[in-house]
C-alpha cells in the first residue's frame, strides 16, 4: 500500500511531495518538541511508511502512528518515544495528543467560545460579518466557535488559538472540525494573519517567487486522524433540505454562503468516499468550482466520472464575476445556480 498525498494531507495539511533515491516521499512538520522547530524536517516514505525527523531523530512507521485504520481519531493513544530531555533515560510513554476530548473521540482544538458571544469589533466577528458578509443567523446555524487557547501546534505561527472553528457533524455525531486562521490585506495587498498570543496582526511578507514566506502555515487545520476523505460539512442539513439535489463546494465559507442545500468537501478535491456518499443521497449534483480549476485536466475528469456513475446527473459550474462562492452573496449564488442548473435554492 502506498501513501497518497491526499492521505498524508489529511493528517499533515502542510505536506509537500518529493522524490529521493527512486521513491516518493513527503516532507511535513515534526510534531515533537525540539530546538529548531521541525518545520519540514520530517520525511515520510510513501512506500514503506517509514518517517524520520532530521532535527530531533523521531522515527517510526507512519501507517501505525498516523494513518491507523483501526480508529478514526488517536487523541489518547500512547506512543513509545525516547525522552531526549534526560540523557540516557529509558523509553517513556507519551500521549500523542493531550487528553482533552470534545465529544466521543473528537479532540478539542482548545479553549473556545461561541463566535456570536465575542465582543463587537473582535477580529473574528469582523472577519465573518464584515469581510465575508455572513449573518449572525449563518454563524449560529453552523455553530461556529472561536479558539482562545490552542491545544494543537500549527507550524511557526503558534497553535490553533486565534482560529475560527467549524464543527463537523454527520448523522448527528460530531466527527471532527476545521480551524481557519483570520487574514486580511491592506490597500497595498500586504497580507496579515491574526496572532492571538499578542492580540495583533502579523505581517506575512511575500518572497521573490511570489509566494508568502510563511506559506507553510495552513490556512485550514484539521486534527490528525480526522477522516477528511469521507467528511462533508453540513451533510445532515442538506439531506433534510432536499433529497433531489445538492450543491457541492470546497470550503466552509462557500458552504455557508450557499445555505442549507450546500455541502463542503473541505479540500480542493472530491474523494471516492465522498463521491459514494453524495451519490447515495442525491441524484442531481451541482458542483461549484473555484475559478482556477482546470476542467480539462485528468484529475477533474476522474472525479466527474466518479460522480456521474450510477445514473447521477452532474452540473458543474463556476461563478461569474467572483473567484468562488465565498466571494458572492447568497442571492448571487442562487441566481446563477437557477440559471445554470434550473434548481432553486
How would you describe this structure to a colleague?
The chain has nine helices and 21 strands. It has 345 residues and is α+β, with helices and mostly antiparallel strands. The protein has three domains: 66 residues, no CATH class; 123 residues, no CATH class; 110 residues, Dna Topoisomerase Vi A Subunit, Chain: A, domain 2. The strands form six sheets. A five-stranded antiparallel beta sheet has the order 1-2-3-4-5. It is globular and about 55 Å long. About 9% of the residues have low confidence.
Structural class of the helix and strand makeup?
A: alpha+beta
The shape, in one word, is: globular
Count the E strands. 21
Helix content: 10-25%
Q: Could you write a compact summary of the structure shown?
A:
The chain is an alpha+beta fold. Helices cover 21% and strands 28% of the residues. The protein has 3 domains: 5-70, no CATH class; 103-225, no CATH class; 232-341, Dna Topoisomerase Vi A Subunit, Chain: A, domain 2, CATH 3.40.1360.
Amino acid at each position: 500500500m502506498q501513501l497518497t498525498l491526499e492521505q498524508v494531507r489529511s493528517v499533515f495539511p502542510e505536506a509537500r511531495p518529493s522524490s529521493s533515491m527512486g521513491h516518493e516521499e513527503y516532507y511535513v512538520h515534526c510534531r515533537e518538541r525540539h530546538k529548531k522547530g521541525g518545520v519540514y524536517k520530517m520525511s515520510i516514505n510513501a512506500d514503506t511508511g517509514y518517517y524520520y525527523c532530521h532535527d530531533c531523530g523521531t522515527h517510526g512507521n507512519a501507517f501505525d502512528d498516523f494513518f491507523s485504520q483501526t480508529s478514526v481519531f488517536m487523541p489518547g493513544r500512547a506512543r513509545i518515544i525516547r525522552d531526549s530531555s534526560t540523557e540516557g533515560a529509558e523509553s517513556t510513554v507519551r500521549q500523542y495528543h493531550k487528553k482533552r476530548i470534545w465529544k466521543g473521540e473528537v479532540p478539542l482544538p482548545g479553549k473556545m467560545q461561541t463566535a456570536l458571544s465575542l465582543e463587537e469589533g473582535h477580529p473574528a466577528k469582523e472577519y465573518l460579518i464584515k469581510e465575508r458578509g455572513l449573518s449572525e443567523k449563518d454563524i449560529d446555524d453552523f455553530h461556529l466557535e472561536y479558539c482562545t487557547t490552542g491545544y494543537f501546534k500549527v507550524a511557526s505561527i503558534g497553535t490553533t488559538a486565534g482560529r475560527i472553528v467549524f464543527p463537523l457533524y454527520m448523522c448527528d455525531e460530531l466527527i471532527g472540525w476545521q480551524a481557519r486562521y483570520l487574514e486580511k490585506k491592506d490597500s497595498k495587498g500586504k497580507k496579515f494573519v491574526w496572532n492571538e498570543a499578542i492580540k495583533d496582526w502579523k505581517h506575512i511578507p511575500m518572497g521573490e517567487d511570489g509566494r508568502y514566506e510563511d506559506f507553510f502555515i495552513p490556512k485550514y487545520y484539521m486534527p490528525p486522524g480526522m477522516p477528511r476523505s469521507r467528511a462533508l460539512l453540513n451533510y445532515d442539513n442538506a439531506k433534510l433540505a432536499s433529497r433531489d439535489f445538492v450543491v457541492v463546494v470546497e470550503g466552509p465559507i462557500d458552504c455557508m454562503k450557499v445555505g442549507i442545500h450546500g455541502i463542503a468537501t473541505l479540500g480542493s478535491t472530491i474523494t471516492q468516499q465522498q463521491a459514494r456518499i453524495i451519490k447515495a443521497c442525491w441524484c442531481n449534483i451541482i458542483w461549484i468550482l473555484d475559478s482556477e480549476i482546470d476542467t480539462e485536466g485528468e484529475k477533474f475528469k476522474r472525479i466527474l466520472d466518479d460522480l456521474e456513475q450510477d445514473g447521477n446527473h452532474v452540473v458543474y459550474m463556476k461563478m461569474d464575476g467572483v473567484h468562488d462562492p465565498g466571494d458572492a452573496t447568497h442571492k448571487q449564488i442562487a441566481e446563477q445556480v437557477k440559471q445554470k442548473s434550473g434548481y432553486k435554492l
